[in-house]
Amino acid sequence: MTVPDGGSTTADNPPPTRGEWPDDSRAGAVTDVPLLSRTAHDRGHLERLLPDPARGRPVRVLLVDDQRNVPVHEGPHGPALVYDERATYPEGAVYLGEADGVPYAALRAPRPDTVGGQPVSSWTGLRQVGAQLDDLDAGLLSQAIGIIEWHERNRFSPITGAPTTVERAGWAQRDPESGREVFPRTDPAVIMLVHDGGDRCVLGRQAAWPAGRFSILAGFVEPGESAEAAVAREVAEEVGIGVTDIRYVSSQPWPFPQSLMLGYVARATDLDLQIDDDEIEEARWFSRDELRSGTGPQALPPNVSIARHIIDRWVAGEFS
């Protein structure tokens, strides 16, 4: 399946609406490593910190509403998350880690009128604001969304069906009948730019997307399959061509709901596209000039996504 912006699209995870597509249709300007990293977090001492992750210090809590939106304030240097500073670790929160001596947590909660006495410009989501946040906020937001999604989708034990209890500051659940622990899972998915060895690459479009919206190909890794084998299989399934010279580029967590995107580039062994209508609605070859000038697709993936990261790097000539 083609992945729109670094993550998978399923019945439980619909694609963004037309209003969420970025206006920027030109590629080649963004070559930084994608955001959504956890470089600022330290969860390695979780066992030592439990059962009091805050260790008596105020904890900064990121509130997440039922639409996966969070409070944001527009400051002079761009948007920033608004945290609710609590004197104690709140019941039901998930510990996110510690940065610069400050503990952070996420809490599913209805929208309050104010958040910690701080101004809130809007409540918005990861897709809309992720690319504009600094590394700390972007990492905290992606981590919070991912772990909260996991809890909401796994309220019952996969072993006995019994309601689970939350343990380890939100990073494990326990089946009360069997005593077994259940931990968060991550679904690996591959996302790949296929090029012709020259100046063209393949972009595809799902039927659910607005007309003119294109991205690189992607799909989930199946059981017993390597990531490289998944690249070759997905390309063959979606556009009917073979690939070689499959090379890893980078990865990105994408919590919609719980994917880890593994980015690749690959060279096509034949050029005649045979589109599988069950997978995608449209696929075409686009040249670097078309992507660079904006004369190709009307819309490309947003800057926060690994899809855009790979497209931009290819347009800039990093892959051949």
Short recap of the structure:
It comes from Modestobacter muralis. With 320 residues, the protein is α+β, with helices and mostly antiparallel strands.
Would you kindly provide a written description of the structure presented here, covering whatever features stand out?
- The protein is an alpha+beta fold and 320 residues long.
- It has two domains: 18-34 and 185-315, Nucleoside Triphosphate Pyrophosphohydrolase (Alpha-Beta Complex); 46-182, Nucleoside Triphosphate Pyrophosphohydrolase (Alpha-Beta Complex), CATH 3.90.79.20.
- The chain is 18% helix and 28% strand.
- The chain has six helices and 16 strands.
- It has helices at 46-49, 126-129, 135-153, 227-239, 288-293, 306-315, and strands at 59-64, 70-75, 78-81, 84-86, 94-99, 102-108, 122-124, 165-167, 172-174, 181-182, 187-195, 200-205, 217-220, 243-254, 259-268, 282-287.
- The strands form four sheets. Strands 11, 12, 13, 14, 15 and 16 form a six-stranded mixed β-sheet that branches. The chain has a four-stranded mixed β-sheet with strand order 4-1-6-5, covered by helices on one side. The chain has a three-stranded antiparallel β-sheet with strand order 3-2-7.
- A hairpin with a 2-residue loop joins strand 2 (70-75) and strand 3.
- It is globular, with a radius of gyration of 21 Å.
- The chain starts with 45 loop residues before the first helix and ends in a 5-residue tail after the last helix.
- The model is unreliable at 1-19 (pLDDT under 50).
